[in-house]
Amino acid sequence: MSLDDVIRENWATRFGFILAAVGSAVGLGNIWRFPFQVGQEGGAAFLLIYLLFILIIGLPAMLVEFSIGRRTELSPVGALREFGGDAWKYIGGLFMLIAFLIMSYYSVVAGWVVRYFVGSLTGGYAEDPEAYFLTVAAGTDALLFHAIFMAATIAIVALGVQRGIELAAKAMVPALVVLMVAVAVYAATLPGAGEAYAYYLSPDFGVIADDWQSIIPSAAGQAFFTLSLGMGIMITYASYLAEDRNLAEDSAIIIGLDTGIAFLAGLVVFPILFAATIGPADPGAGAIFVALAGAFAEIRFGLVLGAVFFFAFALGALTSAISLMEVVVSTVIDEFGVDRIPATLAIGGGMFVLGAPVALDGDLVLIDLYDQLAAEILLVTGSILLMVLVAWIAHDRALDEIQRGVGDIGSLGQIWIWLVRVPVLLALIATLVLAIMGYYEFLTGPFAEWLAG
Predict the structure, then answer these.
(1) How many Å apart are CA 341 and CA 374, to the nearest integer?
(2) Nearby residues of 206 by Cβ (< 8 Å), 6 or more positions away
(3) Tens-digit pLDDT string for the chain (453 aa)
(4) What is the pTM of this model?
(5) How far, CA to CA in Å, does 204 sit from each of 41, 102, 208, 212, 347?
(6) Please, which contacts does 440-449 make with residues 24 or more away whose CB atoms are closer than 8 Å?
């Protein structure tokens, strides 16, 4: 297929676009990464900083990506080349790399989720949650479920925007919300729920003062990760918008729904942990799995609750994985004229291969190596460059695009541009510096020890 023969797809409905964008943002970022970040970084202290980043950075940054995507109707490489000039296409290439890298280990963790759903049905983790996690997290079992999850993602993305991504989002996102609300309502009845809510909702400002160097980059990285910013997803999804939508309104709806589901995940996870008298602050990507499995094994109707929770968890993981793969697939289609099905198969296969070492790493060091690099350094770096382009170089084009479907927004447009120019950029730069310092400590500490054997 030549580039001239490529027929670009569009969303069938606005509702489908919003649900797909919410589905992209919801998932492992909200249900896996968010609770263990909250637990690791001081409970409500982290939650407060995270919500501030969502408010100050999230909405302006999402509008940046939406304005580029809809104006150019192209995936990240082509979109940035057209919007900013030929040199900016390399930032689009960086977004492809980020999405590719995140999806490679994301699929491994999503495989754990599927395996835990099976474990809830069979009672597999009830006897010894820690031993169960060790069998699930690494080895042939982890590799198999990594493959199963990757295959499901490939199947949906290969069907296209309307028949695959949009239909999947319309079915899975509402189901996810209903299931999470049901589990949260039940969790509120558990003993220890009040103590859990205090931990989750009452910030200790002393913790912020003592640990701000760790909390700030974690909260900023989490805000961008959970909103699917800085990796080209929102540029890609906005490129499928055929009509003049109110981008600010859509952004607010998407951010509100996503943040609400992340908050809801905390209302589910922490009461369950406190009911089983399990500490929420154990560090590491696997800690939340061990802790929750142990909690489900202890509380009444725990395995039933676990099955519902991990099923909802799996739905969220799949909606996010679809968007990560679509960034790379859409770029290959736009730039090289490759048919969707072979492009999806090749890209999914490559992601599986890159994630295989993570699935086989029993020490769980590689997942931290991938995650910190992608979510806290590359993602923030790409976002900084994108903000510079839109706020300082091509702000007239961005403002013009934002006003489509809205009309003259007057001084609000300039307020948006200056928000991106100053507080957003300064926050991202500070976050990047702290993240690089933290990653250096990881490389010279745990990773160096792992390499040494």
Answers:
(1) 27
(2) none
(3) 444 455 678 898 889 999 999 998 787 678 777 887 888 788 888 899 999 888 888 889 899 999 999 999 999 999 999 999 999 999 999 999 999 999 999 999 999 999 999 999 998 888 888 899 988 999 999 999 999 999 999 999 999 999 999 999 999 999 999 999 998 998 899 888 999 999 899 888 888 888 888 888 878 778 877 888 888 999 999 999 866 778 888 999 999 998 998 899 889 888 888 887 776 666 556 667 887 888 888 888 889 989 998 998 899 899 999 999 999 999 999 999 999 999 999 999 999 999 999 999 988 899 999 988 998 899 889 989 999 999 999 999 999 988 886 777 778 888 999 999 998 898 889 888 988 998 999 999 999 999 997
(4) 0.90
(5) 11, 32, 7, 12, 45
(6) 442/368, 442/369, 442/372, 446/365, 446/368, 447/365, 447/368, 447/369
Which tokens sit at 431?
Answer: 């976050």
Residue type, 421: R
Coil, strand or helix at 188: coil
Q: Do residues 25 and 320 lie in contact, with contact meaning Cβ atoms separated by under 8 Å? A: yes
Number of neighbours of residue 66 by Cβ within 10 angstroms: 26
Helix, strand, coil tally for the chain in percent (to 5) = 80, 0, 20
- The CATH-assigned architecture of domain 3-452 is Up-down Bundle (1.20)
Contact between 232 and 64 under an 8 Å Cβ cutoff? The reply is no
Q: Is the dihedral of CA 90, 67, 26, 380 positive or negative?
A: positive
Q: Which residues contact 228 (CB under 8 A, 6 or more apart)?
A: 21, 24, 25, 29, 234, 320, 323
